[in-house]
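Ticket #4471: structure output looks truncated?

Reporter: J.K.
Steps to reproduce: submitted the chain below (363 residues) through the standard prediction queue, then opened the result file.
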Amino acid sequence: MSDPRYRAAVVGTGAIAAAHAQAIQDHPDRVRLTAVADLDADRARTFAEAWHAPAVATDLTALLAGGELDLVHLCTPPSTHAPLARQCLEAGVHVLVEKPPTLSLAELDELAEVSRDTGAHVATVFQHRFGAGAVRLRAMTAAGELGRPLLATCETQWFRDAAYFAVPWRGRWETEGGGPTMGHGIHQFDLLLSVLGPWEQVTAVAARRDRQVDTEDVSMAIVTFADGAVASVVNSVVSPRQTSRLRFDYEHATVELDHLYGYTDADWTVTPAPGHEIRWEPDPGSPVSGHGGQLSAVLDALDTGAPPPVTLDETRRTMEFIAALYASAFTGAPVRRGEIGPDSPFAARMNGTGAPWEAVRAR
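Returned output as attached by the reporter:
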């Protein structure tokens, strides 16, 4: 076997880093893990040994100084994403960054500017876009095989206990950027948006019902789309029976996905409307939607010199949706796409003018 074309590093060795290392290992003829970085030297060495990475560092600057990297997998806490991604871009190294990619629209726009200046790219991990069922659904939607999309529901109802939020950066606006809207439901509604296209308006509520956090632990939104379709979006970390569900009602069929943290083709069901026959041809051997599928698409793009998916332009549509959801929830008014300009407080931080429970606590 010839040497892989691309050299990758994993920066940050928390739980999600193993998914990235496995994705790299799944493409041995295309990319190899050459380095691992973590502020904890012992943890970095342990991770590097487990995944057979030859180099270990505790500092991204030192890692980039070697000049032998093509792609950095950024798996650090959210508040570090923007500054570390910027370092990579300025070194001419592409970045695959975990969600949420930044804490705000302003940070995302700054990264986009650096990317334009350097020619290096940032791709956001939205791996559910790349599962076989999602790819098929987008193609069928675009071809009109299901008729017009009419209605959709998107539910991310997960459970995270007090021990989960004991990690210092979780549940805080300044370090995580938001609650389940930013860190949990983002995968499901990004998939929803990738299927239904441009959203037009969001009307939302957000609440802190039970967890002792600064952010919300529940949010709900009603969304309208450019073609007139409507959707509901629920995000929660207080739901003991966990589920990740999407349902799309088209003129000619209902298409549903029911899973938790990753899906295969077996998790999709299609119910044709009376009088219609829908050809949904599942692949029984399709892998779980995960980092490996997205990394394959990233490598394909790098092979051709194209921006790797999910690009910052595409990511911005999802991040703007999040900002609009918070803005609507905290101001009590619907928010339209494009309404959050650079001077809006919700562009600089997702809690914008402040969550209602912050005012109650301050009294």
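Triage note (M.O.): checked the attachment and the full token line is present. The chain has a mean pLDDT of 96.
Status: closed, working as intended.
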